[in-house]
Amino acid sequence: MSEVQSLAIHELTKRIREEAKILPNGILRVADFLNSRADPVLLDGCGALLANKLGTQKPTKVLAGCSCQGLLPALAAARHLQLPLVFAYAAVPKAWGSRPTYSASIQGREHWVLREAITAEDRVIVIDDIVRTGSTVEALKSICKQAGATFLGAGAIIHNQLGESRAENCTSLVQVTSADQKLSICPAPKELQLPEVVAADVLTQRVQKDGQVLPGNLLKVYSFINHQVDTGLMDMCGQLLGRVFTGFGIQKVLTAQTGGLPPAHAVASALRVPLICARETHENDEAVVASMYSAPSESFTKKKKLVLYVTKESLSPGETVLIVDDFLATGTTGVALHRLVEQAQGQVCGMAFLVEKRFQDGRGKILRELPHMAGRIVSLACIESMSEQGINLDCKVVGDCQPLYSPDEKVMIDRVVQCAQPGTGGLINAATFLNHVVDPKLMDEAAVLLARRFADCEVGLVLSAEMSGLAVAQALARLLRVPLLCARRARSPVMLAAGDSAVLAAKVEGSTDESRGELVIFKEHLRKDDSVLVVDDILGNGATALALQELCDAAGARVVGMGFLLEKVFQHGRGKILAKRPHLSDGIVALTKILSMDDTGLKVFRCPEPARETWLRVARELSRRMAAEVEVDAPRNAMKFRSVLGFHMSMDPVMLDACGHVLAAQFAGVTKVLTGAPVQGLAVAYVVARHCEVPMIFARHGVPLTMKGQRILSAQSAPSGTFNVSAEFFGPSDRVLIVDDFVASGRTALALKQICDSANVPVAGFAFVALNQTRLVGPRDAASHPAEGGKEALAGSKVVTLVECTRKGNQVDVQPAEWLRRLA
């Protein structure tokens, strides 16, 4: 078990100590974070630990019981083992018809499994949330015996030893006992100390392979980190740091221009929190010092002193902030960023760096000035020493990095066509991949598609009903990093102990199955300010979805959308929902639509939701948020935006990623994305490049020491500076997409095009988030440059923008771009 994964044990024991309760008869209540309003990130960490403990025996299937408690950790473990999950039912579903089954009953609870789901060749592990008497494990073990399968063992998150415990031979992460009605936890909760280095496998390999040592202790990694950025590598590092800092309650990520922005964006995207980018200015800038949070710093590669600053609106008192940067060398940037948070009366929970040069004692400087950061500083590639002969790295603790899913839009449709079977009475048998035997990879891919569709909805909670809807709901909640609320179809012992006054219930209309006739949640788990995404596996007659909506109505929560894997169009569930909830007309999404079914098979609508509808939704939401936050700079006839995408300092990585997806979809065959420093275009270019799956190059205003001796391509970008790019990043087969946040005068875009012309590479086009249709005044006045004039300056090239902004007096009209309005 690696130290990174053991962080989940710390979070688990901490949550048990702070939130678990002892109920009569030795019942342990963990419903508030583990199995009712569940923390999907915590569950995923626990699933990884169980997979580590039980995966050595080479299982082929994971088996779970007939309630949501055990299903959630089993899904997490199956995901990390990359194995199918089979979950039992408390009654035989009608969709199974007369197909043969296995069953077992212990203490009056029946478990039913299709015979085809478990075979004699299978090697099975059983996963549960809490084990005490072991009755569920015994029932599932009995089913394995009936199938002739090999039972390898069982695992649970918690071994409940309150009172008499009869569970044997079950691997658990935590044991809970009682002394004087107080919980005793083993392993005991302790103060969390992060490892100094979590060596990201892909990053350390890349540093060893492509890193070069230059005179003056300079490390040249600019071909994949800080001049040309490998966005796939950066995303994987961001996901790893997100896992390391899970449980710290991070509310914002803070970095400094320019090199820190790509890794910080990747971390903020993984954590789904706002990203703040501190700008730099010269040390004598009195205006900045007087009006901003500011702190002195020093650039090792630029060999100059500077001041880092953020607006006072971007950091708030009491916020928990994670500092992220590309390099830890002298430590001055980390200290300066910490000072900014201190001035805002926030709390720095940790610091994370891609590459640490240990021999420059940056960590020591930070700890001497900020001793409370001990055990809170992590790097992913720590260089102990380096010379022209080689690089020595600290790799005692290795963190594994996995690439992000990039699913095909038709992945669910294709699986339905291949595997779903028609049943009687309008029922569909999807037991082999969806709602009995679950494919965790398919659930992850489906979750990515749903997350992309609801990127503009600011989801705060995922709500689903046991059992089959929980697989995709858990994957989606983990991806969105929001709580997962599981509505029960039968009241659990914990609910019965709490009494009727503690729960909300809604009837599933038309249900003929008593065990599925009611959905129940704890009142305290659904809150008035929750923005809820309802998720289920199949939309049939709409009864389950409407019952979940009624629970939200009763709590005063707002449903922002409904997502389904399959929709049986012929049962008219969508119409029934809209008849009662017309506000959801644009908020019901199904990844697959089954138009009709008969004895010969299913008629499946093979086209996913038209991409243009997604593009238009993103542009409309972007327009709405920009219009709500725009500020007019009247003297310059310019526009500023406070936090929407925060083009100048504060960014919403989720909305920004949605914009990048739309822009990338308009350009095929791109091999590189090029943008200008320092901040504005860099964030947009990063997300466009990651969706194009190509490197991102950002032009420098200066020439860093690591670029000395290279052939430099230059172009005048503004009266204040010149863009510089190393010629080695362009090849004869490249097609370059130029990206920026705003196009106003068009001067920046033309300068970047000039660099491409110098490199003799074609420009595939220009992509911008917004078009400023009002001419600027002052140094960037388009009228003083006859060859320039906003979008017109780029005439003859393919130019794509998402929104258009026009100043009318002190008001700004923001609306989707003309090409998107035509799609509507």
From TrEMBL:
Gene Ontology terms: biological process: purine ribonucleoside salvage
Coiled-coil stretches: none
One Pfam family this sequence matches: Pribosyltran
Name recorded for this polypeptide: Phosphoribosyltransferase domain-containing protein
Domain Phosphoribosyltransferase, first and last residues per copy: 42-161, 252-358
Keyword terms, alphabetized: Purine salvage, Transferase
Claim: NADP is one of the keywords in the record: no
Molecular function GO terms recorded: transferase activity
